[in-house]
Amino acid sequence: xxxxxxxxxxxxxxxxxxxxxxxxxxxxxxxxxxxxxxxxxxxxxxxxxxxxxxxxxxxxxxxxxxxxxxxxxxxxxxxxxxxxxxxxxxxxxxxxxxxxxxxxxxxxxxxxxxxxxxxxxxxxxxxxxxxxxxxxxxxxxxxxxxxxxxxxxxxxxxxxxxxx
Length: 164
Description:
- This protein is an all-beta fold.
- 0% of the residues lie in helices and 45% in strands.
- Strands 3-1-14-6-11 form a five-stranded mixed β-sheet, with no helix packed on it. A five-stranded antiparallel β-sheet has the order 2-5-12-9-10, with no helix packed on it. Strands 4-13-8-7 form a four-stranded antiparallel β-sheet, with no helix packed on it.
């Protein structure tokens, strides 16, 4: 099987404005907090062997997906995860993601903070601490008769400002 088994990460940022009007008159709204999401690296399973599942952990700096989140404030983060890698002929390699396949890294010397990629999660970004890094691992499960080739998939990141 080819070495081209990668998941590209597309960072689509959705910033929702928060605020409201209370009874009796308009209230001043604070400016919306902004976040920038920059994909640094896609999830890479490398060369897969037919019938042999391959897992990439968030601790594997060379193969995990990594997205830098810069800004200040609390943001809701949702990953739209693919269910398979697909090649140009439509052949598929199923993917599995679990609750422990995500993490947030504040800095390289600090422990990774758990992030469940199957659910929307809140990420706090503090200007004094610098950007946060969202990490993603997962498992590719090729069939015993898997066709050789280059397989790809896309993860979509949605970031929402809840206005807190």
